[in-house]
Amino acid sequence: MHNNLREFIAALKRHNQVQEIDVEVDPHLELAEIHRRVIENEGPVLFFQKVKGSKFPVVTNLFGTRARVDLAVGQEPEKIVREAVQSVDQLMSLSPKVLWEQRNLLFKLTKIGTKKVPLANAPVAQTSMNPPDITALPVLTSWPDDGGPFVTLPLIYTENPENRSHNLGMYRIQTYAPDQTGIHWQIQKGGGFHYHLAEQKNRELPVTLFIGGPPALILSAIAPLPENVPELLFASFLMQKKIDLTARGTSPHPLIAEAEFAVSGTVAPKIRRPEGPFGDHYGYYSVTHDFPVFHIKSIRHRKNAVYPATVVGKPRQEDYFIGEYLQSLLAPLFPLVMPGVESLWTYAETGFHALTSAVIRESYDKEALIHAFRILGEGQLSLTKFLILTNVRTDLRNFRTLLPEVLRRFRPESDLFIISDTPMDTLDYTGRKFNQGSKAVMLGLGHPIRELPERFEGEGLPGISEITSFCPGCLLISGGDYTRDEQLPRRILESTNIPEFSAELQKWPFIIIVDHVQTIKDQTAFLWEVFTRFSPGNDLYAQQEIKDNRVVFHGPVIIDARMKPFYPGVVTPDEKTVRLVDQRWSQYGIKL
Fold first, then answer.
1. Residue 103 CA: distances (Å) to CA of 77, 97, 99, 240, 273
2. Is-contact 133 146, C-beta < 8 A?
3. Using one digit for the tens of pLDDT, what is the confidence trace for 188-218?
């Protein structure tokens, strides 16, 4: 497949997928506002030829549709994964006959790896920037309350200081000065583990920031791979060819020869600096926190380098389409690495970590809990906040059909588990503490035990102004906002025991309080507004008792998914920039 960014752009042009913009555009807010309008309409790749304050052009929206993600890597990786899974039992025998029968598959696997090329043959080393100045790059400021410009497609290469194994991850980079940036190492991320080891030894950690390169490299840096699977090998697998690396030379690491930029330096131990806020892929601002500092020592780049960028925010954005592809690619492997898990899906609409669902095997009582523990102990899946398990074979992507199947079988007394004081995704602030929160496991197994209502038949509820259903069994209600009526969920819970309300409320296994029912018009809005706005340990209500040292819940289960005053704010565009883009739209020449 495509060896570098420009080959990919050329292919996109052949498919009439690139819109070139020849007028000058400001990387501070204006460019991001243009991008958001285009991706919302599933529009083209944007190639900004003239970017204010920089000599480098910018390309965005490279992965803004599933078709473009497919074009980036082709169909071969998915075919190989399916072939490998179907053949795994045969390959284990290692017999000459079987190996010969699988020779085509094995030949494809021999293409995976890296190979060294001379520094003189590495395009990324064509030009050195002296002195290094990362502010010369057209780094975007996407949202009005962002703490500064951020590199939004950074490929951060580090090596384990003990065994030299490598990690290539996407950890955001806030520019502070020409030779200094932040580096946002979240928990459960490989680069952060490497830094932890170096810091324990009071050593600097060499870091190389790559920007651009083969599109497969960008996908690999995002992929939720097991800790011991090297991202460069995964990128090579996606490309079906070896990745060119240069000799180290004066660089602390081999350079990815086909990258657009290579920014090398070190991260010193025990030095922190405030990073953020940043409008992140959850659709909210991350809060300012202290993170390590990247000290830049050299910048190399291709001649006529192109700066790739993206814009994150409220779903759906580019990460949605990348995440959908990677899950489809890796899905056949789940039964191999987690026996008994037939299928699994995380939801981009919730920032991925907030919600996971799986179809599992239940061959004996409580086997589902074994699968729950396995999922919650598996790499980045360990950051899952709400886990739903069922043994009903259903399309997990369609939450409107999945949730009723679960609710028909859901017994709160035995099928709901809350685990408090757990590590959580760095970007999820619902748990009230940084990097901490709670988890829930919800089961829906076996034969249906109830018929589900489809519409609310009662005459209303005290303090509730809007009532509707999201799907059979799941009621959506709105009343006062959290600051004016914090006790609303407790009053709804009390109403489940009041005769005039209980008959109707007891029909609904799930009751979710949201700020405004009318804003939830589809699955994307439901998943985003609900699962990014509650913590199981703080915001889930039900009648409960203690039995055998366990909290036992009795339905209905009520979730308070309203915005809380201590949550970070929802990202919204700058009004002045919106007006500017309105006025200039015809100049950009973009056709949607």
1. 17, 10, 6, 16, 53
2. no
3. 678 899 999 999 999 999 999 999 999 999 9
pTM for the model: 0.91
Here the tokens at position 565 are 């005053």
At residue 468, what are phi and psi to the nearest 5 degrees?
-155, 180
DSSP secondary-structure letter at 502? H
Burial call 202-235: b when 16+ CB within 10 Å, e when fewer: eebbbbbbbbbbbbbbbbbbbbbbeeeebbbbbb
The distance of Cα 243 from the centroid of its chain, to the nearest Å, equals: 25
Spatial separation of the C-alpha atoms in residues 581 and 94, rounded to whole Å: 62
pLDDT tens digits, residue range 216-275? Answer: 999 999 887 777 778 888 888 888 889 999 976 667 899 999 999 999 999 999 999 999
Residues β-bridged to residue 264: 208, 298
| Residues 356, 345 contacting (CB under 8 angstroms) | yes
Task: With beta carbons less than 8 A apart as the criterion, state whether 418 and 536 touch.
Answer: yes
What gap in Å lies between CA 281 and CA 213, rounded to an integer?
A: 23
Q: Return the amino acid letter for 67.
A: A
Query: CB count, 10 Å around CB of 538?
Result: 14
491 Cβ contact list (under 8 Å, min separation 6): 462, 463
DSSP code of residue 284: B
Preceding omega of 277 cis (within 30 degrees of 0): yes
The C-alpha atoms of residue 404 and residue 395 are separated, in whole angstroms, by: 12
User: Which conformational region is residue 430 in: left (phi greater than 0), alpha (psi within -120 to 50 degrees), or beta?
Assistant: alpha
* Pair of tokens at residue 417: 């588990």
Cα separation, 494 vs 115, in Å, equals 67
Q: b/e map of 139-150 (b: 16 or more CB within 10 Å)?
A: bbbbbbebbbbb
CA–CA separation, 231 vs 172, rounded Å?
Answer: 17
Question: Residue 258 has what DSSP assignment?
Answer: T
Q: What pLDDT score was predicted for residue 233?
A: 85
Hey, how many other C-beta atoms are within 10 angstroms of the C-beta on 65? 17
- Cα–Cα distance for residue pair 215/213, rounded to 1 Å: 6
**Cα gap 359→82, rounded to integer Å:** 19
Query: Measured between alpha carbons, how far apart are the two ends of the chain, in Å?
Result: 29
Q: What is the pLDDT of residue 91?
A: 46
Q: How many Å apart are CA 212 and CA 304, to the nearest integer?
A: 13
Low-confidence ranges of the chain (pLDDT < 70): 80, 82-111, 187-188, 248-250
**Cα–Cα distance between 567 and 160 in angstroms, integer?**
35
Q: What are phi and psi of 542, to 5 degrees?
A: -165, 160
For residue 395, the surrounding DSSP H or E stretch is none
For the residues of 541-591, what is the DSSP string, one character each? EEEEEEETTEEEEEEEEEEE-S--TTSPPBP---HHHHHHHHHHHHHHT--
Measured CA to CA in angstroms, residue 260 lies from 18, 131, 213, 235, 496 at distances of 19, 18, 6, 16, 61
Distance, CA of 471 to CA of 453 (rounded, Å): 9
pLDDT at 101: 47
Helix (H, G, I), strand (E, B) or coil at 195: helix
Residue 115's alpha-carbon distances to 16, 159, 309, 520, in angstroms, are 33, 18, 27, 51
Asked if residue 39 lies in contact with residue 64, where contact means CB atoms within 8 angstroms, the answer is yes
